[in-house]
Amino acid sequence: MTATATTSRSVLRQAISGQRRRVTLASVLAAGHQGGEALVPVIIGVVIDQAVDGGSVGTLVFWLAVLGVIFAGLSYSYRFAARAAEGASLRAAHDLRLAISRRVLHPGGGADKGKLAGELVNIGTSDAQRVGVVNAALPFGIAALAGVLVSAIALLRISLPLGLLVLLGTPPLLYLAHLIGKPLERRSEAEQERSAHASGVATDLVSGLRVLKGIGAEPAAVARYRETSQNSLKATLRAARAKAWHDGAVLALTGVFIAIVALVGGHLASSGSISVGDLVAAVGLAQFLLTPFLIFSWVNGELAQGRASAARVADLLTTPVAVEPGDGELPSPATGNVRFTEVTYGALRGVDLDIPAGQLIGVVAADPAAATDLLDCLGRAGDPAEGTVHVDGVDLSTVDPDRVREVVLVAAHDADLFEGTLAENVHADGRSAGEALAASAADEVAAALPDGTATAVTERGRSLSGGQRQRVALARALAADAPVLVVHDPTTAVDTVTEAKIATGLARLRRGRTTILVTTSPALLAAADRVVVLDGGRITGEGGHAELARDRADYRAAVLS
């Protein structure tokens, strides 16, 4: 048994056990409904034998009243069974979405490894829903089994051969239906994979639409999505064909089985082994059996798709975290001394760097990958392969990621804004952030908006220009007032005058707090106490901005060109 199979079964078990009460209630009610359905042809047979043949009006009225009671029970039992089953389905999907969200947002990270954002969304919506539907399918599968058992018992009462035919013929029929569902399971998994990938590509393209238009890359983007979408369509069509073949094959098997039951019943009636009423009951039961077998077909298809989606959910939930929690403790309050000792991670090679508490330092990285890896190490998005990163003498790899990020705030270059007001984006708890707005020149953004800081910002800040978004994102980072602030290229979309204002404001506001500026902005670097040059993954020089610009051609090329 493969690990994936084991974990997918575990996901299904958890989805069912989490809604056991509702699933049990739905199963009991649905089983009562199917059992009642099976009794209808039996009672009609009794009416023919006892009331019609006997000519008793009283008996006829009595059995008709019994039928009325049964039909009333059938109506209510089905209604409440469907409600309980649907509730179990929706709640299980909701619980799965919460589990998926917790894993994606886990401070240890790692869930997005090899997955686009749209793929994660697809797993958290479509796959979670398909797994949840198993809770709706199971009660009706149990009910269908109950209907078959009641029919078999009734047929045993009518005729031993008929009852045995149903009892012994049903298990092989169910096993064949299970085998027929295997191709559907495989193709459903492929369909979900392709669909998730197409969603991921679409999300990426929409997020970068402004950039694509700016560089004239729309045709290439359209071609990329067209290919991805066509692959998704092909997988969907293959899954649809598999489902059609599955449903048709199961229906054909069911039809053959029911025809055999009806033929055997007709033969017994013609030979005088059973009465006319028994024949009517047997034929009615044979026709009724079509319903539970159709339910079996539907349940089998839903289980096949649910197993495929459960495997994808399990793969995400069991993805190892990128960084493990630790038992180390950073001092409170932290002073902010940062020390890299022979750090090798990604593009970084043996980096040695000491940043005293309260210093404003600039880092110029020739390789963008090295800049990103530096940020990952500082924010503990990843642990060094070799060497250590210390803050106030404590190895960050031993500290819980949540605690690290309380002390070291990494403001990435592509930080997004959220839907809400500008004030809420800068300070989620609604406190005043006037100094942070002024230092980042975001007060000018607020002044240009119709309602100032109370102006609503659309999702990802698309209602603002690129420069406005950057300033608001920087204000948010400054307002957090972290002991160590790491900022990556915060002014690439603002003009030089505004950039100079931001450099002055940032240096003033962060005085006495450790600040690391990973940037090539001359204005920001000129405000730094010290500048470090990172080239080839190693530190190749350090000093003041003016000194480095005078003495190093490579620095001038990176910063002043």
Automatic annotation (TrEMBL):
<dbReference type="GO" id="GO:0005524">
    <property type="term" value="F:ATP binding"/>
</dbReference>
<keyword id="KW-1133">Transmembrane helix</keyword>
<protein>
    <submittedName>
        <fullName>Multidrug ABC transporter ATPase</fullName>
    </submittedName>
</protein>
<keyword id="KW-0472">Membrane</keyword>
<feature type="domain" description="ABC transmembrane type-1">
    <location>
        <begin position="25"/>
        <end position="305"/>
    </location>
</feature>
<dbReference type="GO" id="GO:0016887">
    <property type="term" value="F:ATP hydrolysis activity"/>
</dbReference>
<feature type="transmembrane region" description="Helical">
    <location>
        <begin position="162"/>
        <end position="180"/>
    </location>
</feature>
<dbReference type="GO" id="GO:0015421">
    <property type="term" value="F:ABC-type oligopeptide transporter activity"/>
</dbReference>
<feature type="transmembrane region" description="Helical">
    <location>
        <begin position="280"/>
        <end position="299"/>
    </location>
</feature>
<dbReference type="InterPro" id="IPR011527">
    <property type="entry name" value="ABC1_TM_dom"/>
</dbReference>
<dbReference type="InterPro" id="IPR036640">
    <property type="entry name" value="ABC1_TM_sf"/>
</dbReference>
<feature type="transmembrane region" description="Helical">
    <location>
        <begin position="23"/>
        <end position="48"/>
    </location>
</feature>
<keyword id="KW-0812">Transmembrane</keyword>
<feature type="transmembrane region" description="Helical">
    <location>
        <begin position="136"/>
        <end position="156"/>
    </location>
</feature>
<dbReference type="Pfam" id="PF00005">
    <property type="entry name" value="ABC_tran"/>
</dbReference>
<feature type="transmembrane region" description="Helical">
    <location>
        <begin position="60"/>
        <end position="81"/>
    </location>
</feature>
<dbReference type="InterPro" id="IPR003439">
    <property type="entry name" value="ABC_transporter-like_ATP-bd"/>
</dbReference>
<dbReference type="GO" id="GO:0005886">
    <property type="term" value="C:plasma membrane"/>
</dbReference>
<feature type="domain" description="ABC transporter">
    <location>
        <begin position="333"/>
        <end position="561"/>
    </location>
</feature>
<dbReference type="InterPro" id="IPR027417">
    <property type="entry name" value="P-loop_NTPase"/>
</dbReference>
<feature type="transmembrane region" description="Helical">
    <location>
        <begin position="248"/>
        <end position="268"/>
    </location>
</feature>
<dbReference type="Pfam" id="PF00664">
    <property type="entry name" value="ABC_membrane"/>
</dbReference>
<dbReference type="InterPro" id="IPR039421">
    <property type="entry name" value="Type_1_exporter"/>
</dbReference>
<dbReference type="InterPro" id="IPR017871">
    <property type="entry name" value="ABC_transporter-like_CS"/>
</dbReference>
